[in-house]
């Protein structure tokens, strides 16, 4: 075993190869070594968890060497560094991904086989970190993967929630939440850094004093003090030496505080206050796209942002550069408004703590930050009630006021006779009790604003941020989302990945545009056969998983029609259900009708406080119960709810799909990323002209995409023209029959009240225009069925989808951010 270069002096002494070697034999030895010395076990008595831990530590050792070398390279070269600030990360299981990045999947499999162990069984044991809700958190994880793979110096900053997104159980058809205990068995992927910790203050009041040089100074007499401790997780690039850093903060008590300052003999009380400090990073808020206003949520945001900026300042100090050049070292991305308090916090740190003057600090701040918007939904645009904000962050409120005063002074010069516009632009919403508008703070405090798909970016500039677009059109950019082909193709769908590599070579794994080489094979019957084989294997695997999990028998030969994403009215899972009920009605009336067998699968979590979303889950399960035991359906229609949808489940769902449901009301879904993962795995899309669907359809070709429904402009006009869903219900007999069946209690053991809120909403308001799109959707589904009857045609369409999805790699998205927003370049780490 040739030893790695020792010249850097970073490799610790000892039997070096057992911690770095990549051969099957070395991996086997290292695994046994870790099983003994970390778990205190030998093979005969080891549990699943022992094996998982031992293998994870084996892989971690191999990452640590690259990690240290990466940090060294960055230290030497002092490159501009991306800091991705995100309240959420959804990385998915680490072990398999790290094996893939290191290129040791096969060697590890062989090593374990030598011990009579099965790698897949060990992989299956991992409890994934569910530190995010959905698309936004998963995007952050895809971006971390691409940053490392493109060899971009980057740190992901966030919160180490002790409890991530809840686990979902289904009881009697209803969603029941249980707490996520992902840390129960310990987490071999993180390194706690007790030495990297920062104090975070909150509350209290400010004092304005003049110092001995006649300078105005602000003292923040805080009321409470916390400490954030860093927990680092390595993020390995695929096929490169780069290992970047995901640094998550855990809240702890600031030592000494209670005991020295406030201790009045109340020892137990002081300890209890310490325990309470830990609540800041205790639990992830389980709302995707919902409103804010909770004090603890603001504390979480400020907590992780303050730790991250203090950490950046510490790193900056090691470069010896003057503080006014902070922005030359760091490009910080605000992942939605959640970290936007960073604008005020960096100003505070630079002005109050480091003595910069306001203009210098403002210059550095504006050039540091850029803001990504992920939604147009009004209820998701964060605004903090002023009394709450003032109570938690009194100094930051003063800073926000000062930013706003200067900004509005400029705007009054520009628009002297337009006070209404000034009020609209203001960072402060003056409606009682007054609010701080975080999207405005992000727009003013950064140098770029981006949407996440072309349509979304256009709507952003013409609706919610129109006034900002008027003043700074050049600040607006589009950065269409992307997904990592490593996790979502290579890991999730090894059979298809092998087929692609056989046809194209392996260049596609780091340059996804190369998939275009498949176009020439789209009509090749032998290739089509192998394509269908690969798909069938994933469908059978999912069917087996579901059978084992819930006793649902589903037929891998049927059309797998899948909608998997958070449950939300705007995503319209219930439109999908109206189609299912329509198929059911058709089969009831003509039991011998010749329709292709379909399995309609749903997966997704509802926010625990979102009653309508939970009712939709109940309705899915209620329809499933009736449909699945009706002999008239005779295996031609099945409905399945896949419980506890998370990244791991997603990896087995995307590759098994024939049809991908992307049916949100046009104008509502900012981008979507599941749409990309399905299509990249050879599913055809039925979808509206919403989010990135628009660009996916353009890329794969309109003939290879099932389009239906109103577009975003038509949706606006439909609502403006006095939309009356009831009229549509009266006019379309199939629609009426489907709604009536649900309303009448057919799926509720005769209880006509159960789904009343849902039906009433559809017939009375129908905010998301289900009834307006129903006919187009059902007719489009009939075209899907026709295409499915012709396997050669279907497979050709699927191959062309994959061939043309190269643009939707997160590598492309990240390359665009690097070029257009961050102005950063790769810094190669040598092996
Ligand atoms: C979230 O997952 C998204 C937007 C939000 O405002 C919040 Br809060 C959470 C999603 C969008 O709904 C998707 O359309 C988008 O693809 C994703 O963010 C990533 O940009």
TrEMBL record:
EC number: 2.4.1.1
Cofactor(s) this protein requires: pyridoxal 5'-phosphate
GO CC list: cytoplasm
Region Disordered: start-end pairs: 1-20
GO biological process terms held by the UniProt record: glycogen catabolic process
SUPFAM superfamilies cross-referenced by the UniProt entry: UDP-Glycosyltransferase/glycogen phosphorylase
Modified positions (N6-(pyridoxal phosphate)lysine) in chain numbering: 677
Protein name: Alpha-1,4 glucan phosphorylase
Compositionally skewed regions (Polar residues) per UniProt: 1-10
Keyword set includes Cell membrane: no
Record field: catalytic activity: [(1->4)-alpha-D-glucosyl](n) + phosphate = [(1->4)-alpha-D-glucosyl](n-1) + alpha-D-glucose 1-phosphate
CDD domains, A to Z: GT35_Glycogen_Phosphorylase
Entry function: Allosteric enzyme that catalyzes the rate-limiting step in glycogen catabolism, the phosphorolytic cleavage of glycogen to produce glucose-1-phosphate, and plays a central role in maintaining cellular and organismal glucose homeostasis.
Organism (species): Parasulfuritortus cantonensis
Family that this chain belongs to: Belongs to the glycogen phosphorylase family.
Domain of life of the source: Bacteria
Keyword annotations from UniProtKB, A to Z: Carbohydrate metabolism, Glycogen metabolism, Glycosyltransferase, Pyridoxal phosphate, Transferase
Molecular function, one GO term: glycogen phosphorylase activity
């Amino acid at each position: 075993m040739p030893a790695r270069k020792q010249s850097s002096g970073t490799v610790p002494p000892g039997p070096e190869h057992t911690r770095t070697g990549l051969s099957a034999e070395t991996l086997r030895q290292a695994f046994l070594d870790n099983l003994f010395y970390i778990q205190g076990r030998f093979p005969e008595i080891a549990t699943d968890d022992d094996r998982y831990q031992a293998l994870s530590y084996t892989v971690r050792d191999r990452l640590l060497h690259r990690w240290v070398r990466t940090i060294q390279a960055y230290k030497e070269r002092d490159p501009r560094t991306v800091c991705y600030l995100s309240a959420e990360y959804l990385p998915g299981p680490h072990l398999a991904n790290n094996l893939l990045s290191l290129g040791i999947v096969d060697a590890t499999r062989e090593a374990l086989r030598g011990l009579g162990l099965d790698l897949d069984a060990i992989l299956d044991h991992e409890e994934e970190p569910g530190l995010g809700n959905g698309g936004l958190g998963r995007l952050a994880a895809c971006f971390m993967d691409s940053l490392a793979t493109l060899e971009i110096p980057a740190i992901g900053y966030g919160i180490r929630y002790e409890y991530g997104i809840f686990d979902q159980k289904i009881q009697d058809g209803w969603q029941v939440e249980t707490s996520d205990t992902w840390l129960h068995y310990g987490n071999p992927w993180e390194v706690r850094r007790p030495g990297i910790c920062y104090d975070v203050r909150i509350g209290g009041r400010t004092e304005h004093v003049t110092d001995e040089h006649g300078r105005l100074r602000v003292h923040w007499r805080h009321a409470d003090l916390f400490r954030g401790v860093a927990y680092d997780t390595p993020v390995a690039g695929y096929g490169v030496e780069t290992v970047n850093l995901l640094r998550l903060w855990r809240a702890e008590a600031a030592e000494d505080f209670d005991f020295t300052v406030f201790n009045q003999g109340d020892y137990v009380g002081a300890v209890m206050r310490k325990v309470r400090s830990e609540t800041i990073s205790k639990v992830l808020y389980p709302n995707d796209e919902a409103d804010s206003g909770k004090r603890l949520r603001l504390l979480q945001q400020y907590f992780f942002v303050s730790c991250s900026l203090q950490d950046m300042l510490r790193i900056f100090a090691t470069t010896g550069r003057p503080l006014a050049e902070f922005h030359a070292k760091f490009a910080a991305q605000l992942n939605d408004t959640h970290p936007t308090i960073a604008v005020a916090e960096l100003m505070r740190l630079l002005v109050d703590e480091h003595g910069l003057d306001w203009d210098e600090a403002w210059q550095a701040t504006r050039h540091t930050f850029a803001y990504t918007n992920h939604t147009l939904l009004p209820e998701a645009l964060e605004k903090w009630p002023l009394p709450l904000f003032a109570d938690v962050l009194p100094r930051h409120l003063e800073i926000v006021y000062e930013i706003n005063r200067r900004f509005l002074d400029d705007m009054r010069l520009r628009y002297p006779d337009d006070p209404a516009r000034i009020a609209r632009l203001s960072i402060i919403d003056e409606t009682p009790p007054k609010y701080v508008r975080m999207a405005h703070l992000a727009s003013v405090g950064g140098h770029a604003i981006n949407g996440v798909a072309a349509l979304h970016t256009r709507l952003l500039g013409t609706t919610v941020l129109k006034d900002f677009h008027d003043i700074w059109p050049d600040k607006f950019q589009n950065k269409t989302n992307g997904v990592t082909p490593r996790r979502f193709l290579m890991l999730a769908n090894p059979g298809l990945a092998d087929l692609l590599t056989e046809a194209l070579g392996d260049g596609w794994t780091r340059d996804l545009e190369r998939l275009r080489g498949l176009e020439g094979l789209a009509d090749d019957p032998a290739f089509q056969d192998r394509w269908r084989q690969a798909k069938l294997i994933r469908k059978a695997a999912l069917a087996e998983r579901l059978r084992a999990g819930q006793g649902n028998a589903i037929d891998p030969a049927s059309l797998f029609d899948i909608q998997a994403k958070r449950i939300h009215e705007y995503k319209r899972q219930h439109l999908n259900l109206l189609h299912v009920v329509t198929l059911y009605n058709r089969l009831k009336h003509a039991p011998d009708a010749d329709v292709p067998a379909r399995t309609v699968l749903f997966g997704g979590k509802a926010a625990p406080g979102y009653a309508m979303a939970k009712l939709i889950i109940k309705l899915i399960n209620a329809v499933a119960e009736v449909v699945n035991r009706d002999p008239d359906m005779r295996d031609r229609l099945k409905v399945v709810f896949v419980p506890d949808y998370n990244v791991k489940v997603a990896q087995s769902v995307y590759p098994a799909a024939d049809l991908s449901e992307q049916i949100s009301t046009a104008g509502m879904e900012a981008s979507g990323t599941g749409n990309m993962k399905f299509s990249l795995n050879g599913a055809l899309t039925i979808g509206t002209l919403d989010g990135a669907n628009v660009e996916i359809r353009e890329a794969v070709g309109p003939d290879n995409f099932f389009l239906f429904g109103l577009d975003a402009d038509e949706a606006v006009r439909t609502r403006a023209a006095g939309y009356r869903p009831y009229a549509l219900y009266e006019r379309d007999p199939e629609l009426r029959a489907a709604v009536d069946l649900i309303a009448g209690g057919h799926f509720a053991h005769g209880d006509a009240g159960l789904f009343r809120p849902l039906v009433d909403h559809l017939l009375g308001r129908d905010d998301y225009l289900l009834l307006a799109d129903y006919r187009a959707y059902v007719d489009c589904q009939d075209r899907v069925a026709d295409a499915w009857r012709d396997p050669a045609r279907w497979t050709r369409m699927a191959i062309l989808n994959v061939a043309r999805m190269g643009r939707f790699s997160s590598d492309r998205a990240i390359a665009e951010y690097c070029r257009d927003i961050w102005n950063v370049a790769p810094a190669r780490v040598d092996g």
